[in-house]
Amino acid sequence: MNIIAPAIESYLESLLPERHPIFREMEAEAKRKGFPIVGPLVGSLLALLARAIGARTVLELGSGFGYSALWFAQALPPDGHLLALEGNPDNARDARAYFARAGLEDRATFKTGDALELIEAEPGPFDIIFNDIDKDAYPEVVPKALRRLRTGGLLIADNALWSGRVTEPPGDTWTAGLQAYNRLVASEPTLMTTIVPIRDGVSVSLKVPDN
User: Fold this and answer.
1) Which residue range(s) make up the domain with 69?
2) Residue-wise burial string across 84-117, b where 16 or more C-beta atoms lie within 10 A, e elsewhere
3) Residue 1 forms part of a structural domain
4) Residue 161 has pLDDT above 70, yes or no
């Protein structure tokens, strides 16, 4: 899914500070299983963004086995909290185990089920909402997220460039969903949006006052 040259990616990764061994273990597990994770470049970006806005509350929509969640959690203050909504109970179980081993189990709650349904019980406001659910459902996230994101908060979405397929006529519902999401956040007057072209593209939207 990476859209940047391998040599550039390797160079960028060589500049990253050493990360907790749990991250490397999770990266190896993802590679072994062929499980998509955001990887260390995006992970470090998520942590940087959380620190930059002084985030204390994060909502993840689609968390896998907790890789991106762990990047967020270790960037939060001691009284910060992450709520992860994950559809697969096995993934949520594995995420809890990784968090426990990292000593951050008190900083996160994992709930299982359809994220678009579970979010209805979470009024917020949240400092960051991270969107990584099935791509055909991305457009449905925007109105739900806007109601729960504080002004000055960030709506972040993974896979925004979808291996470059967003530049072509959509041949499947996931590509169409990503294209629709990108248009929605780009045209929404209460969001300032950019796409960072690392890995598979990361959409970052800042919620601004509605004038």
Assistant:
1) 6-207
2) bbbbeeebbebbbebbeebebeebbebebeebbe
3) no
4) yes
